[in-house]
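Now for a specimen:

…
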Amino acid sequence: YYVIIILEIILLLVITSILCFKFKIAYNEMDIFPYARATFANEFSSKYFLNFDFPSNFLFNFILGFFISKYDAFSVIIFGRLLSYAMICSSYLYLSKVLKMKFFVSAMTYILFLYFFKNGIGDAGEWIVGGLESKVIAYSFCIFSLALFLKEKYKKGFLFAGIGLSTHLLVGTYHLICL
């Protein structure tokens, strides 16, 4: 059973990588990396990075800053994106299992999901799967939360909603409003 789930996640990860992965700095990664490095090194000043006095997305930035300080940025981008893609794939697959969808239907709806959200939607250009940002991780926690609410596991659902909220404030807030 678990081998099949892992193979399904790997297949969705391959699809995601083919459709969304770019071998260049994407979206806000150029802004996030120095911010994450400063969060890890505790080098904040009131004049650093858009005048933030408190580091937003602290846990994400601290972990990312740790890896940036130890490894080269390109390796961190590749590994981080693949990890965030795997999290989105896992959460989407879990939601489709809760909705009792067959894998083929789940994979087709996932491809449609990527098609509509990979380059952004609307005037704001909001995307779900793309570069290494905290919102990709937050979306995966929010999808897990939604699936847990559908299974009527409310405590775990709120736990994942809270993790999504603490990972990215806007994504988590919209998720809580929609629940």
In short: The CA atoms of residues 75 and 104 lie 32 Å apart. The helical segments are 2-20, 29-41, 58-70, 73-98, 103-117, 134-150, 154-167, 169-178.
